[in-house]
Write a structure and sequence with these properties.
It is built from 2 helices and 9 strands. By secondary structure, the chain is an alpha+beta fold. The longest helix has 43 residues. The termini are far apart.
Length: 259
């Protein structure tokens, strides 16, 4: 074998090695280009809304400002809607009720007069969830008109709790009472009848009750109130002195409306 024949395989091997290295470099370059294209496509397909799926704190500014203003407007609308939906004895509510029940005379009054039915017109204004302004105009007549009583009262109502649709409450206040007595100490006049004695006195009341909310504008309840009139001395037609005033308790059922 001569020298030329031994050098030919060496040259072919070197040429093959060079071609393999060139192909390897071309393959690595294509891989880098492909990876770069894939990364760019992935970044392009990711939208800003994908960052807002879970944590609202990382939302883009453009979406955050619009959505926050929309949520603020929605909250204001909800608050206005709630304030317009008034129910019995809630803040801002006007509650008007008609009371009817028994009036029990206490002290010296039952010795001369009998218990009887009484009625009352009741108005309550909701100041807060806990307190209400309470006022009433009441009247009762006893022993066929020999004794009657008119009352104008104001006070403070405190809602003790809100249990489902039942509202137990306490009530305390002051007011004016006008008891009326028919004077039987002298004979009745044929023209004017028997004389009468009446006086306006100050007094207080204290009690409790419960209301059942039937609908958003209708309620039903009951109350037991103790009344104490601060007495004063007056005289009958025959000159005999007696005390005007006394005490009584009212047990009333009522039904009312809210507006």
């Amino acid at each position: 074998m001569n020298q030329g024949e031994s050098a030919a395989p060496t040259q072919r091997a070197g040429s093959l090695f060079l071609r393999c290295m060139a192909n390897l470099k071309w393959t690595q370059k294509n891989i880098k280009i492909s990876v770069g294209v894939i990364v760019l496509m992935g970044c392009a397909t990711v939208s800003p809304k994908s960052y807002a799926s879970t944590d609202p704190s990382i939302r883009p500014v453009a979406w955050t400002s619009d959505e926050s203003s929309s949520s603020t407007t929605h909250s204001i609308k909800n608050r206005d809607t709630r304030s317009s939906e008034v129910s019995p004895f809630t803040p801002g509510s006007n509650n008007l009720a008609l009371d009817l029940g028994q009036v029990f005379l206490i002290g010296g009054l039952p010795q001369n007069y009998t218990n009887s039915l009484g009625t009352q017109l009741h108005y309550t204004y909701g100041v807060s969830d806990l307190f209400c302004f309470d006022s009433s105009l009441g009247y009762s007549e006893h022993s066929s008109g020999q004794y009657s009583m008119l009352s104008v009262l104001t006070g403070l109502r405190m809602n003790l709790t809100w249990y489902d649709k039942v509202i137990p409450y306490g009530l305390a206040g002051l007011g004016f009472y006008r008891p009326y007595y028919q004077d039987n100490t002298v004979p009745a006049s044929p023209t004017s009848g028997s004389p009468s004695v009446a006086a306006t006195v100050f007094g207080m009341h204290l009690g409790f009750g419960a209301d059942l909310v039937l609908t958003r504008n209708l309620f039903f309840g009951a109350s037991l109130i103790f009344h104490n009139m601060f007495g004063t001395d007056m005289s009958w037609a025959n000159g005999k002195m007696f005390s005007v005033g006394g005490a009584y308790a009212s047990f009333f059922l009522h039904i009312g409306a809210t507006f």
